[in-house]
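User: Design a sequence. Structure:
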């Protein structure tokens, strides 16, 4: 029987500080209302530091972060991770270079998810800020942000994301209908850059729709 994993407290605290810093920043922007949202960072090859369920993401402290394995099971704690933790660990399993995953609920993200739920996709083209997404070097490209149906069945959502990735299409983030956005990066800084870029692109798209009425 394998020995139980004992977390390195300094390493876990370092992850918690980075997650809390991101939470304060994103909370101040109004992107984490009413204890919504969840954040995570890779702890090591087999574990992830993630926010504990129900905490105010704009006021996170070191005790609001816990450790899970890549199946989403709690490690060395009785705390309960977010019900959406499976969507975080899925990305760490699929891509060992991913270092942070961010999920927020801004107004733009939520409204856009409702508007585009029918088509299942938002396609950005011609926006200079597409270049903020890793791998995009010109505005003369197409950047797709899928919109998956909302459900409390996390394994079903995991299957939808897996199906998208298995089809070989690029994926740097996705919306869930009436819910919010998930995006990620190799570092917390890259994940935040992706989140800010998608937020701007969604706001621009919504404004163009409003002005074109």
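Assistant: Done.
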């Amino acid at each position: 029987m394998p020995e139980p994993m004992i977390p390195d407290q300094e390493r876990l605290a370092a992850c918690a500080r980075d997650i809390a810093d991101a939470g304060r920043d994103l909370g101040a922007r109004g992107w984490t209302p009413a204890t919504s949202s969840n954040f995570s960072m890779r702890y090591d090859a087999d574990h992830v530091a993630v926010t504990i369920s129900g905490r105010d993401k704009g006021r996170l402290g070191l005790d609001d972060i816990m450790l899970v394995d890549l199946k989403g099971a709690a490690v060395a704690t009785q705390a309960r991770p977010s019900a959406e933790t499976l969507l975080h660990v899925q990305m760490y399993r699929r891509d060992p270079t991913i270092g942070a995953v961010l999920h927020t609920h801004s107004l733009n993200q939520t409204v856009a998810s409702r508007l585009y739920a029918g088509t299942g996709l938002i396609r950005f083209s011609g926006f200079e800020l597409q270049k903020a997404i890793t791998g995009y070097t010109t505005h003369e490209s197409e950047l797709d942000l899928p919109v998956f149906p909302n459900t409390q069945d996390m394994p079903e959502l995991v299957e939808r994301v897996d199906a998208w990735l298995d089809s070989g299409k690029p994926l740097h983030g996705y919306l869930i209908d009436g819910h919010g956005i998930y995006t990620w990066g190799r570092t917390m800084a890259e994940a935040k850059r992706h989140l800010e870029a998608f937020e701007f692109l969604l706001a621009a798209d919504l404004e163009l729709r409003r002005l074109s009425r």
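The chain has a mean pLDDT of 95. Helices lie at 9-28, 85-94, 107-115, 154-166, 188-211.
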